[in-house]
Amino acid sequence: MPPPPPPPHLRGVAPAPVAAAPSFLRLPVHTRLRVPAPRAAAASPVPASHSPHEHDADLLSRAADVADRSAGLTSPHPNFGCVIARPQRENDSAESFVVGEGFLYAQGTPCAELLAAQEAGEHARGATAYLNLEPGDCYGDSTAIGSLVQAGIARVVVGLRHPLKHLRGKAIQALRSEGIQVDVVGEDLQTKPFEGALKSCLTVNAPLLYRAAFNVPFSVLKYAMTADGKIAASSGHASWVSGKASRGRVFELRGRSDAVIVGGNTVRFDDPRLTARHVKGHVPVRIVMSQSLNLPEEANLWNVNEAYTIVATQRGARRDFQKKLAMKGVEVVEFDMLNPRDVMSYCYDRGYLSVLWECGGTLAASAISASVIHKVCAFVAPKIVGGVNAPTPVGELGMSQMTQAISFIDVTYEQIDRDMLISGFIQPIPDLSPVIPSVDKIPSIDPEVSPYETDIISFYKTWDTFGAFSNFSSHPIHMPDDNGDYFTWPTVEHYYQAHKFVGVDNPQARTIIQEIKLAKSPEEAARIGRTRQKEFPELVRTDWETKKIDVMYRAIKCKFATYPSLTNMLLSTAGSVLVEASPHDLFWGGGREGEGLNYLGRLLMQLRSEILGTFPASVKAEDAA
């Protein structure tokens, strides 16, 4: 069959290239910050990829690029983009036509999914929608979901689940309940073919991800310096270090920020305006940090007709001057101890997503030391100013060796007229997808748990909140010994370690069992069992590797049956993934980064399901695990 024709208003339009991973700094200003309008190239063909997965990855990257068009136009909101594509021919996934695109301009405006569906029209029926981020409007407003359903979308590819817990998974569940196939990168789609697309999705919503992960706004430190590392001359004069084109890029950075922060010296020496002039974007709040409040009576920042200004200061500083600022409409906020961390917490409480730091070296060093700076944008001008006392962009960090230097991540280099822009992250963009050991096994253990839509409960040490789940917890169990006689084992760990040697017809094996029985602590029992297993492998029962899960499960069932309080604690975790957070035991534990098999967590979830009646007790533990 011939490919479906594009919508009439798009026929004859030249193809639009698939965009590379979006960056805060890489694309031209007019590309990123223009006022939204119908995209004329929506019906452009996407070049054929080597595989269907690469094809999906290209379109997902394009969705991230579309989402990036809203950055800086309004604040604060996440960046949502939707691309709708359909194959040129039936049963052909090698090449597709993009028939609709849309992005969320601002909260309260039509959502990306609705705009893309409207542009696609009838061509959306049976097509695939690509979303850089799971829709986040499932509470009250279901327009995003309804738009895709009513348009007849057959499949949705999602780059990232929503990072906020109260929204995570809600839209995905709603789409699936409508019979739409939903594929999430890293879950239903292997991550490797989508690495570039996933990075695009992370980058375009970095502010939201940092805020969700660290409870502070995403912070970018910007400065312009000479080739010899000076941000001003020895006199303090700094106009202008960089060229006009670089300053235009700074206006754009401000337009993408909710607030711009400077210190008192910047106000005294430079008298900045800190507006996003010459760029069609919102105007950020201007924040001045000054402990002493030794600031000039008149300054551009005190003119709040251009933009709102906040002065953050130490409690009790120059109350008379505070009143003068208030008379001008400047808000003064007092802190018990003025520091970057508390100011960022304050900005977080005000709902800011992104903050741009345009401060001097002393405040920059303090912010970096407080771990509130996530990215650096350094404009380097091809000039030398010299001066032993000329200020540098970052003050004292207490580093005495070059090996202590902070290295940038994902570094980019861009020439802007005669200047060079070097940018990079100093804290990686947080991927809030849960790290769950052996995630492929979890649905078979607890069918009520979706590992990507739930909380993770970790336990390890007995003093943890859920430390009673540990095999080392002080809960004796009454179970058979090597002779079949019932014996009260001090802990599950005692029972488990001894049963490595049960049934072996050797006096030395029985001696080891007795030694473990008498161990004064579970740690001692574990040490004896593990050491003897290495020293005398011939004394370990031959079926141990196939039976050890059964042995552990019997002990766990006895433990929880003996102590009703433990059963109640286990049932209180319903709907959560349980992870034994041992960084060393990669069989029973989850490992440092989810590389472990987490069999103990699995068995506890299996027991929880049996108690709740959602898992048949007749299924063997090793089959479930």
From TrEMBL:
One of its GO terms (biological process) is riboflavin biosynthetic process. InterPro entries: CMP_dCMP_dom, Cytidine_deaminase-like, DHFR-like_dom_sf, Eubact_RibD, NADAR, RibD_C, RibDG_C, Riboflavin_Biosynth_HTPR. It is found in: Plastid, Chloroplast. It catalyses: 5-amino-6-(5-phospho-D-ribitylamino)uracil + NADP(+) = 5-amino-6-(5-phospho-D-ribosylamino)uracil + NADPH + H(+); 2,5-diamino-6-hydroxy-4-(5-phosphoribosylamino)-pyrimidine + H2O = 2,5,6-triamino-4-hydroxypyrimidine + D-ribose 5-phosphate; 5-amino-6-(5-phospho-D-ribosylamino)uracil + H2O = 5,6-diaminouracil + D-ribose 5-phosphate. Pathway: Cofactor biosynthesis; riboflavin biosynthesis; 5-amino-6-(D-ribitylamino)uracil from GTP: step 3/4. It comes from the Eukaryota. One of its GO terms (cellular component) is chloroplast. It is an enzyme of class 1 (oxidoreductase). Its EC number is 1.1.1.193. Keywords: Chloroplast, Glycosidase, Hydrolase, Multifunctional enzyme, NADP, Oxidoreductase, Plastid, Transit peptide. Its main location: plastid. GO terms for molecular function: 5-amino-6-(5-phosphoribosylamino)uracil reductase activity; diaminohydroxyphosphoribosylaminopyrimidine deaminase activity; hydrolase activity, hydrolyzing N-glycosyl compounds; NADP binding. Residues 54-183 form the CMP/dCMP-type deaminase domain. In the C-terminal section; belongs to the YbiA family. PANTHER family: 2,5-DIAMINO-6-RIBOSYLAMINO-4(3H)-PYRIMIDINONE 5'-PHOSPHATE REDUCTASE, DIHYDROFOLATE REDUCTASE FAMILY PROTEIN (AFU_ORTHOLOGUE AFUA_8G06820). This is Riboflavin biosynthesis protein PYRR, chloroplastic. It comes from Setaria viridis (Green bristlegrass).
